[in-house]
Design brief:
Oligomer: single chain
Distance between the termini: 117 Å
Number of strands: 47
Strand content: 25-35%
């Protein structure tokens, strides 16, 4: 009995020994991962094959297509229906009719009995050819289905693919139709090419870390957000993989968590996505835009993972290798089609030539002679062809002769020999062309791709804008959703000490800096309650890398009794570490402490102890005479005598030079990190002048969080109201360039003013604030080039900022303009008046 049980156990173990590996292989190969040959998963391939069988040019109910596909796909109608809708929504292989849902809003398609589909003309051209298709039996052995479709296009990269198998997954992002064809042509020509994702949902994409779509790569995708006015933002699209409902939920969640502050969010989506975000009073739209990217699904990160089936095995490869594989596959399919066509033409030539000889040489009369048997008739005809066999390109078979004899006698006498000669001539021309195409297969494949682009490329231009995204520091844009308090005597700070002294609003992402009477400093994360040290002097939200906030301090060393003064910045620290700002002796304490946002250096009065032996018991100390050093410096000696107290006497001026600013037009941001073009040194009261190619200007402050449209900025500089602005713009209606000079009379900050003539197509061509601007104009091409220099201040009067201006020249597509910085004195150059 025991032996029988062991035998049974061994049998069961044998059955289950490889079950998981078999299951994993099945899921990978037959369900989740696409094949490299046609870019399709089995269910997609079977749907397309079923639709081809049903194709009669008319739309079919999706329910019928699902039923037809179930003859090949043994996994139920739900999986087939989902895959069919997914392909239909990509608008490439399948033409749809009815409500197929919306990938932007997440709306589901209508039931299968209500919607219809058919193969697109593009699909019929690139995906089907029974002569080049490899076939296999369907799962029940009743029908044939394709192993892979003969796909003559990089479909996998156009549609993208996503699937989770056992132990691996694949995520291939969709790419642009036109760019794929152009890259395929470059690949055939042996030239370099680049490929980046493109999404139906539009948006923007940062591809700096795309890594060809391989494992480890990453892309960041954003929605376009526009500022309708100072109180309203409009979200114009959604990132790939995010629906409008998900996006709105993420905004509401961020608002509930206090990361952003809005009044309401409204979905106005119709033909185009439009989500309206109404801001709470006093909230900056620029900071809110950054916060939406930082805390909501307005920006998402996607990690591609290109995995495909090659030779019945999963492989991880990049999109460039995928495109090369698809291009090579297309070239091979085109070669096979040409070879098949050549064989068919040669066969047609052979039979047409036989026909011509058969009738022209009257061999058909053998049919009228009396022969003993049918075989004798065939032999006689074959013998009659003997003198002409050298004209043929292959041997005459019995089937050839039988086919000739089957022609009706009544047609023999009406046959036009000249027509047969014309047919042979045309066939020879076709054969010559096919052989030429085979000899120049690369050129033929390029022409094939160019034809695809011409026929189907219209309306498939890139939708997703490729651009670099700036790094947004979450704590710099987080709304202050908490209040910071301090208990100075006990040494606690936190957001939960609501009965104690209020310091400032903060967010739960902020770091807090604090200083104590004992000369200790600590930076901690904003929390409910944190111990710093008794007798807290100063608490504030900490700004990392802040080189302008300057701390002025006078302290007494507990060991020597000597008092020291120091000035220092705090640019970076280790969180939760305690720093000693004195010499480190016990009983050291701070006499005086001030915080100066722009390096101000005040004057203080030092009052010595009455018991001090010093002659002068009071004297002034000037912080402006000290250099700003590191926080660890000992400082300069103030006095060796005991100090009673230190009193503020007089405010001082800033000892720092103006803040130097740069403008990075890639991101449309001001910065102090020397990125982009240097603008100048700015004091706190200085303003910016920004002029856009749209014909708008605005006066702005130097707040680093504001955003500019870098692609449209023609001029950005320190604003001087006394400077004269010289501008040249195109009047599209009159097809002429106008010029005007004016002073800026408006003072409202961050408000755009339109200063050129209104009209569709009117754009600002050139602008400057030079005192004596000289405009260099060039028009024409080659030998017809004309150049002119215009001393603008001599020919154009200063006018109001709303004036239309004076005509400068007629419009020409070849016209180029630039400003000359120095005064011109070249008499050989003509002046235009």
């Amino acid at each position: 009995m025991k032996d029988n049980f062991l035998e049974n156990e061994s049998g069961i173990q044998g059955q289950y020994k490889t079950w998981f590996l078999d299951y994993a292989s099945y899921v990978i190969l037959e369900r989740a991962v696409p094949a490299v040959e046609d870019g399709l998963k089995p269910v997609q391939r079977r749907i397309l094959h079923a639709m081809k069988e049903m194709d009669d040019g008319r739309f079919n109910k999706v329910a019928n297509i699902i039923g037809q596909s179930m003859q090949y796909h043994p996994h139920g109608d739900a999986s087939i229906g989902d895959a069919l809708v997914n392909m239909g929504q990509k608008d490439l292989l399948i033409e749809t009719q009815g409500n197929w849902g919306d990938v932007r809003t997440g709306d589901d398609a209508a039931a299968a009995r209500y919607i219809e589909a058919r193969l697109s003309k593009f699909a019929l051209e690139v995906a089907f050819n029974p002569k080049t298709t490899e076939w296999q039996l369907s799962y029940d052995g009743r029908k044939n289905e394709p192993v892979t479709l003969p796909m003559k296009f990089p479909l996998l990269l156009a549609q993208g693919a996503e699937g989770i198998a056992v132990g691996l997954s694949t995520k291939i992002l969709p790419h642009n139709f036109c760019e794929l064809i152009e890259a395929s042509i470059k690949c055939l020509r042996g030239r370099k090419f680049e490929l980046y994702p493109d999404f139906q949902t539009v948006g923007m994409i940062d591809v700096a870390n795309y890594n060809e779509g391989k494992r480890g790569g990453k892309v960041r995708v954003r929605a376009h957000i526009e500022e309708l006015d100072k109180k309203t933002l409009i979200i114009k699209d959604v990132p790939y993989g995010v629906t409008t409902a998900q996006l709105m939920d993420s905004i509401v969640k961020a608002n509930d968590q206090g990361k952003i502050k809005i009044k309401k969010v409204t979905d106005n989506t119709a033909a185009d996505v439009e989500i309206q975000v109404d801001l709470a009073p006093g909230i900056s739209p620029d900071i809110t835009i950054d916060a939406l990217y930082a805390f909501t699904d307005c920006e998402v990160s996607i990690s591609p993972n290109a995995c495909v089936i090659i030779d019945q095995k999963p492989r991880f490869i990049g999109v460039q290798e995928l495109l090369r594989t698809a291009t090579d596959n297309t070239k091979e399919l085109l070669r096979r089609e040409l070879e098949i066509k050549l064989a068919e033409l040669q066969e047609k030539w052979h039979y047409t030539s036989l026909e011509k000889i058969f009738f022209e040489e009257k061999i058909y009369k053998e049919l009228e002679k009396k022969h003993e048997t049918w075989d004798k008739v065939l032999e006689a005809i074959d013998k009659a062809f003997t003198p002409f066999k050298k004209q043929l390109r292959r041997d005459i078979t019995r089937e050839d002769i039988v086919k000739l004899t089957e022609k009706p006698v009544r047609r023999i006498y009406k046959l036009d020999i000249d027509e047969l000669n014309d047919q042979i001539k045309a066939i020879n021309a076709d054969i010559k062309q096919v052989k030429s195409d085979l000899d120049n297969l690369v050129d033929f494949a390029v022409a094939y791709y160019e034809n695809l682009l011409k026929k189907y490329g219209k309306g498939r231009e890139r939708k997703t804008e490729i651009k670099l995204f700036e790094a947004i520091q979450a704590k710099q844009v987080a709304i202050a959703n908490a209040k910071l308090y301090v208990n100075r005597a006990e040494g606690f700070i936190g957001t939960g000490l609501k009965k104690d002294e209020f310091i400032a609003d903060c967010s739960n992402l902020d770091d807090i800096i604090a200083f104590t009477k004992a000369g200790k400093m600590k930076v901690v994360k904003a929390a409910d309650k944190v111990f710093i040290g008794k007798d807290i002097l100063h608490v504030a939200v900490f700004q990392k890398n802040d080189e302008r906030t300057t701390y002025n301090m006078i302290y007494v060393d507990g060991k020597s009794g000597v008092s020291y003064a120091k000035r220092f910045n705090v640019t970076g620290v280790t969180r939760d570490k305690e720093y000693d700002l004195t010499k480190g002796s016990e009983k050291s304490k701070v006499h005086y402490f001030s915080v100066n946002p722009n390096g101000e250096a005040e004057t203080v009065k030092i009052i010595l102890s009455p018991n001090a032996t010093a002659r002068n018991k009071e004297f002034d100390f000037y912080f402006e005479e000290m250099e700003i050093k590191g926080r660890g410096s000992m400082g300069n000696q103030v006095t060796k005598y005991p100090v009673k107290n230190v009193k503020f006497k007089e405010a001082g001026r800033s000892t720092l030079s103006g803040r130097k600013l740069w403008f990075d037009n890639t991101f449309g941001r001001l910065n102090t990190e020397e990125k982009g073009n240097y603008i100048g040194s700015f004091e706190s009261e200085d303003r910016l002048l920004v002029v856009y190619n749209t014909g708008n200007y605005e006066i702005s402050d130097t707040e680093l969080t504001q955003r500019f449209d870098g692609d449209k900025v023609l001029l950005i500089e320190k604003f001087n109201p006394e400077k004269i602005v010289t501008a040249v713009y195109l009047d599209k209606e009159k097809l002429q360039y106008n010029i005007k000079r004016f002073k800026i009379e408006t003072t409202t900050l961050r408000n755009k003013f339109f200063f050129i003539k209104e009209g569709e197509g009117n754009v600002l061509e050139a602008v400057t604030t030079d005192e004596e601007p000289i405009l260099i104009m060039q028009s024409g091409r080659g030998a017809q080039v004309r150049k002119a220099k215009i001393k603008v201040n001599k020919v154009v009067e200063v006018m109001g900022w709303k004036a239309v201006g004076a005509k400068l020249a007629d419009y020409s597509k070849s016209t180029e303009m630039e400003w000359e910085k120095k005064k011109a004195d070249d008499n050989n150059q003509p002046e235009l008046f």
